[in-house]
Amino acid sequence: MSAERLDGLTSWNADWSGLRVAVLGLGMTGFSVADTLTELGSSVLVVAAKAAKEYADLVPVIGARLELAPSGEIPDALVEHDPELVVASPGYHPDDALIAWAEARGIPVWGDVELAWRLRDKVVNPQTGRPADWIAVTGTNGKTTTVQLTASMLLAAGHRVAPCGNIGIPVLDAIRDPEGFDVLVVELSSYQLHSTSSMSPWASVVLNVADDHLDWHGSFEAYAAAKARVYTATQVACVYNKSDELTMRMVEEAEVVEGARAIGFGLGVPGPSDFGIVDGILCDRAFLEERRDSALEIATVDELALRGLGAPHTVADVLAAAALARSYGISVEAVRAALAGFSLDRHRIEHVVSAGGVTWVDDSKATNPHAAAASIRAYESVVWVVGGLLKGVDIDPLVQSAVGEGRTRVRAVVVIGVDRREVVASIRRHAPELPLFEVDHEETEDVMTAAVALAAGAAQPGDVVLLAPAAASMDQFTDYADRGDRFAEAVQKHVGGSDGDDTHEEPPAQH
């Protein structure tokens, strides 16, 4: 197929029949790609190193073929298929042998988001005659919470909305839903953005940028460049974090649709065209006519705290979501209604139990240093459970900011995970007097039992024992949810399944 014809495949109604496509990976995303393309009549070969039986059994049913091949191997079936397009699942690194093979032959490599954007007109809004608008959300931390908040606000205003993408529902499944939606709130990882070039969202946000996934991208610069792609061709609002100068520069350098506005959010007093906080009140100074000398009240920090949304980084997510929703014309009343009924997902600064004056908090979702730092800052006195799979990230800046000279917030540290050596060395370097405990158990069943026992021995009344690993979980656990569940189970066993009179007491978040 000529490059010109491939460039012309920008609609569900274009002629995709007979297009030879290689789909790399057969997880949830890879299957959605294969299923979509076979529905369009393309000739699809799925190549994967492994595949769950549920997906493998369905591949021939949908009319595709599956070739299982070890990582790094170029199977003969792929060469014989002679693909005109490769669609790679997010887990395939840019330097993967299969990606390199395709690029060396001049074969375009897309991701599922690029494909979905081109096919988004399968179902159109009968009132407008247009497909669903996209609101795109990325960042190192807070993506899922912000997506869920934004979707809740749009739903409260009566819109048909789907949170999708990296949040767990493939965007291809959302654009193929026969009922259709008014708007999709799409969580995008840096992996997905790396291979996306055509998307033009209604509004977009980079919540924050810090070292993460450097093993995948190769450098911080490449990681940040992938995140910045979310702003390209934004139509209405580029939302950025006023406390993260890099996100501001990304907006300044982005090629956007003429008329798109830059909207800042932050925990300080907002300027015109910003969302922020004045005397404990979250305010909108962006989407009102009199924004130079007035503001709209969204909620109070105290109200958010009652909903478990009072940690500073969560308040920032609320402000970002409000900015995205308000850019779509959502009323402040709808924003307030959504916040009144919203609660965080599990394993995100989740209160496990309070017993003997000690509060136990599961923030297993804090899988990188930036997230862990935000979690630690939410509490006054912390026994910190940290460690796991560092993914090539330097832990030292986090340790220095958390326990370095003059820092008193962290009272003791319990280190878990296969990459313990780096964490322990950093703590001993920056805080040699700090009580430090190391869990050297390799068996998954033993790790949290030992960690909880050590943390309980170090904790004093008034402390928060905080699981904020700053690392991925796949070294010793299935995923971050498994890690958090095992932590909570170990805590409940340690306190005897009874947490006394203070079961429902939440630790006070610091603002």
From TrEMBL:
<comment type="function">
    <text>Cell wall formation. Catalyzes the addition of glutamate to the nucleotide precursor UDP-N-acetylmuramoyl-L-alanine (UMA).</text>
</comment>
<dbReference type="InterPro" id="IPR036565">
    <property type="entry name" value="Mur-like_cat_sf"/>
</dbReference>
<dbReference type="Pfam" id="PF21799">
    <property type="entry name" value="MurD-like_N"/>
</dbReference>
<dbReference type="GO" id="GO:0008764">
    <property type="term" value="F:UDP-N-acetylmuramoylalanine-D-glutamate ligase activity"/>
</dbReference>
<comment type="pathway">
    <text>Cell wall biogenesis; peptidoglycan biosynthesis.</text>
</comment>
<dbReference type="InterPro" id="IPR004101">
    <property type="entry name" value="Mur_ligase_C"/>
</dbReference>
<keyword id="KW-0067">ATP-binding</keyword>
<dbReference type="InterPro" id="IPR018109">
    <property type="entry name" value="Folylpolyglutamate_synth_CS"/>
</dbReference>
<protein>
    <recommendedName>
        <fullName>UDP-N-acetylmuramoylalanine--D-glutamate ligase</fullName>
        <ecNumber>6.3.2.9</ecNumber>
    </recommendedName>
</protein>
<feature type="domain" description="Mur ligase C-terminal">
    <location>
        <begin position="347"/>
        <end position="470"/>
    </location>
</feature>
<dbReference type="InterPro" id="IPR036615">
    <property type="entry name" value="Mur_ligase_C_dom_sf"/>
</dbReference>
<keyword id="KW-0133">Cell shape</keyword>
<dbReference type="InterPro" id="IPR013221">
    <property type="entry name" value="Mur_ligase_cen"/>
</dbReference>
<dbReference type="Pfam" id="PF02875">
    <property type="entry name" value="Mur_ligase_C"/>
</dbReference>
<comment type="similarity">
    <text>Belongs to the MurCDEF family.</text>
</comment>
<keyword id="KW-0132">Cell division</keyword>
<keyword id="KW-0547">Nucleotide-binding</keyword>
<feature type="domain" description="Mur ligase central">
    <location>
        <begin position="137"/>
        <end position="266"/>
    </location>
</feature>
<feature type="binding site">
    <location>
        <begin position="139"/>
        <end position="145"/>
    </location>
    <ligand>
        <name>ATP</name>
    </ligand>
</feature>
<keyword id="KW-0573">Peptidoglycan synthesis</keyword>
<keyword id="KW-0961">Cell wall biogenesis/degradation</keyword>
<keyword id="KW-0963">Cytoplasm</keyword>
<keyword id="KW-0436">Ligase</keyword>
<dbReference type="Pfam" id="PF08245">
    <property type="entry name" value="Mur_ligase_M"/>
</dbReference>
<dbReference type="InterPro" id="IPR005762">
    <property type="entry name" value="MurD"/>
</dbReference>
<keyword id="KW-0131">Cell cycle</keyword>
